[in-house]
Amino acid sequence: MAIPRFSSLLRSRKFAKSDCLVASIGFVLIVFFLSFFFDPTSDSVPSVDRSPPIKSPPDLVKLTLSSKAKERGAFCLDGSLPGYHFHKGSGSGSKSWLLHLEGGGWCSTVASCSARAMTMLGSSTYFEDEVDFQGVLSSDPSQNPEFFNWNRVKIRYCDGASFAGHPEAEFKNGTRLFFRGQLIWEAIMDELLSMGMSDAKQGILTGCSAGGLATLIHCDYFRDHLPKDAAVKCVSDGGFFLNVPDVLGHPTMRSFYHDVVNLQGVDKSLDQNCVAKPEPSKCMFPQSFVNNIKTPVFLVNPAYDFWQIQNVLVPASTDLDKSWAKCRLNIKECDAAQMKVLHGFRSSLMDAIGKFHQNKAGGMFIDSCFSHCQTLMSATWHSPTSTRIENKTIAESVGDWYFNRKPVKLIDCPYPCNPSCYNLNFT
Ligand SMILES: *[C@@H]1O[C@H](CO)[C@@H](O)[C@H](O)[C@H]1NC(C)=O
Ligand SMILES: *[C@@H]1O[C@H](CO)[C@@H](O)[C@H](O)[C@H]1NC(C)=O
C-alpha cells in the first residue's frame, strides 16, 4: 500500500523536514552558491566535490503581484495573489521573451497542501520582495551569452501542482484551499502579453523541476499565444520525472502523481489524448506526452538527477535499514551494487527519451552529474569551469539549438566519466 504510506509520511514531521528540503531545492542550491542565508528547514546544505565557483554579483529583480489575477480568480493555495519578477529586455533583446516557471515539488493531500499554503510555495505573503537572476535569467553576457538582454520573467510557483490545478477540485472536507494553477498560468500570460509580449519575435518557455514539468505541460499554449511568426521553443530543466518503480518495486512516484492529479483536478491541463486512456495520472509523466508536443522542446536533465534518486528511486520510505543513507546523499558513497541500480535508472531515462531522440526539432543535454536544476546558476549554465558535454556548456548547447546553428543531442557517458560535473553532497 504505497499510497497511504507515502502521503502519511509526507505529513510526519521528520519527512516534512526533508520534503521541505527537496521541495525548495532550486532555492537551496542558490542559497548554497550565493551563501545569502541558511534555509532553517534543511538539515544540511549541499556542497560540491569541486571547489565552489566564484560568486557572481547579485542581480536583484523586484516582485510584481499579478494585476490580472483577481478578476480571473487566479490565486495561490491560500487565496493570495500570484506574482512574478520581470526584468525588461533591451537593445537586440527588446522583442525577445524568456519565461521561467519556478519549481518546488507538489502537494498531494489536503494536509500537505494546507501546510504548503503557509510557505512561499503556497502563498505570496511569504514571497521575497526581490530575487536574484542568475544563469539563464542573468543580465550578465559572460554568464548568459544568448539571452542576457531579453525580457526575462521568473513566474513564482504557489499552487502545488505545476501550474495545472483546477478549481472544480476544491472544497474538500471543508478546507479552503485554492487549486488555481492553470488560472495562474493564464492570468500571468495575459498580463505579459499586454506588457509587450504580444509583439514578441522570439520566445522561450523554461522552468526547472516541477516548473520543468509545467514547461512541458504548457509549451503548446505558450506557442499558441505568441505571434505566429515568432520563433518559439521550450526548454525543460530537470523536469523529466520518470514513471519507474522505487528500489522496493513500489510505484511510489506514480501513486504520488495519482494523488496530485486527483486532488487538484490536474487531468484537465494534461494531454487530452493521453488522458482519454486508462490511468490519466500517468499523463503527468513527460514520457507519456513529450512526443505529442508540437512546439520544439529541449531537455536539460542529469541522468543521475539527485531529486529523482532521493524521491522517486530511493525515497526515504524504502530505506528503513539505512543501507542507502550515504549513497542517496552523495553519489561518491555508492557501492558497486547501488551504482548498478543508478545506472539502471539512467537506462530507464534513455528508454523514455528514445523516441524523442529521433525528433528533428528536439534537443537535449543529458549529463551524468548528481545534480538537479542546472540552468539557474552560472556554475552549471555557463562559466569557464561549468558542466560540459563535448566541450559545450548548457548555455551554448541551448543557444546552438534555439538559433538553429546545429542539431544538439548531447548524451554524456555514464557516471563518473565527466570531470566537469558539480556533484552535490548533502551529507
Ligand atoms: C475527507 O475526509 C474523509 C473522512 O475523514 C477521508 O476518508 C477522505 O480521504 C478525505 N478526503 C480528502 C480529499 O482528504
Ligand atoms: C573547449 O572550449 C573552449 C572555449 O569554448 C576552448 O577555448 C577550448 O579550446 C576547447 N577545448 C577543446 C579540447 O576543444
TrEMBL record:
This is Pectin acetylesterase. It comes from the Eukaryota. The chain crosses the membrane at residues 20-38. It comes from Raphanus sativus. Its EC number is 3.1.1.-. Belongs to the pectinacetylesterase family. InterPro entries: AB_hydrolase_fold, PAE/NOTUM. GO terms for biological process: cell wall organization. The keyword rRNA processing does not apply. It is found in: Secreted, Cell wall. Keywords: Cell wall, Cell wall biogenesis/degradation, Hydrolase, Membrane, Secreted, Transmembrane, Transmembrane helix. Hydrolyzes acetyl esters in homogalacturonan regions of pectin. In type I primary cell wall, galacturonic acid residues of pectin can be acetylated at the O-2 and O-3 positions. Decreasing the degree of acetylation of pectin gels in vitro alters their physical properties. PANTHER family: NOTUM-RELATED, PECTIN ACETYLESTERASE 5. One of its GO terms (molecular function) is hydrolase activity. The keyword Secreted applies. It holds the Pfam family PAE.
